[in-house]
Amino acid sequence: MADSVILIGGLLLAWQAIFLLYGDLVITPPLGTIGYAIRLLGQPFFWPHLLETGKAFAAGLTLASGGGLILGLVLGFHRLSGEVFEPILTALYSIPKVTLYPVILLIFGIGIAAKIAFGTIHGIVPVVIFTMDAVRNTRPVYVKVGRLHRLNPTTMARTILIPAALPEIFTGLRVGFSLTLIGTLIGEMFGALQGLGFLLMRAIGLYDVRMIMAITVLLIAFAAGVNSALLAVDRRLHHRTV
To answer: How far is CA 233 from CA 102, 147, 168, 229, 237, in A?
Structure first.
């Protein structure tokens, strides 16, 4: 806790120093930015954009987590399929997803569907990779016991594979959360008429530094808060398996 307070205090001091050095044409001061961000939450025009981003992000995260978990379990359990698809997944994970956005727009058009698809593409790959590796590293004796009891694949996954691989799977879900959020916002920035990413791009176009900083602060606060909670659960799961 003390380390977190020191880190946040150091970041705020550095932020204030940059403001004093360059002025409000480049960056707004910490207290002023936080105050404006809080006031922004009370503005009627802001909530439709926030809800639009929230809906797209929630749908993308659901698809990325659910789809990634299922694919990871299948590819991890069936080793030949995993060996075939692993290089493809690794290549997809490494390329900039922005290059795929024109294809997404052609398929889904400008709207919430494109944002959901772009967020899902960002988040699903790490979930698949972490889940696949976790299943592969499951102790063989667990799988042998399941086969000895003639468990079907669904029961095997539910009662043996997922509980045994849960710490690594949860790590993949945590990474997928962050990347899905990034993908959703990027989707809104490049092709949307509503959402926080759209507001951010409009503010950049108008050179509205105060709006840019306020939206950035709100996004960072949300992502940091949720990630801190997920990281605490992640550490507890890994500690329990030690």
So the answer is: 37, 31, 12, 6, 6
Residue 64: CA count within 13 A, CB half-sphere:
35
Entry pTM: 0.85
HEC sequence for 114-142: HHHHHHHHHHHHHHHHHHHHHHHCCCHHH
Largest CA distance in the chain: 70
Say how far apart CA 186 and CA 97 lie, in whole Å: 10
Q: Going residue by residue through the chain (242 aa), what tens digit of pLDDT does each one get?
A: 666 678 778 888 888 888 888 777 778 888 888 999 999 988 998 999 999 999 999 999 999 999 999 998 888 877 777 777 888 888 777 777 777 778 887 888 777 888 898 899 999 999 999 988 888 887 777 777 777 777 777 787 778 777 877 888 888 899 999 999 998 998 888 777 888 999 999 998 888 889 999 999 999 999 988 888 888 888 887 776 55
- One-letter amino acid of 55: K
The whole-angstrom separation of Cα 195 and Cα 211 is 14
Q: For the purposes of burial, counting CB atoms within 10 Å of the CB of 136, is it exposed (0-12), middle (13-18) or buried (19 or more)?
A: middle
The answer to whether 234 and 177 have CB atoms below 8 angstroms apart is no
Amino acid at 132: M
The C-alpha atoms of residue 229 and residue 214 are separated, in whole angstroms, by 23
Q: Where are the beta strands (DSSP E) in the chain?
A: none
Amino acid identity of residue 77, one-letter, is F
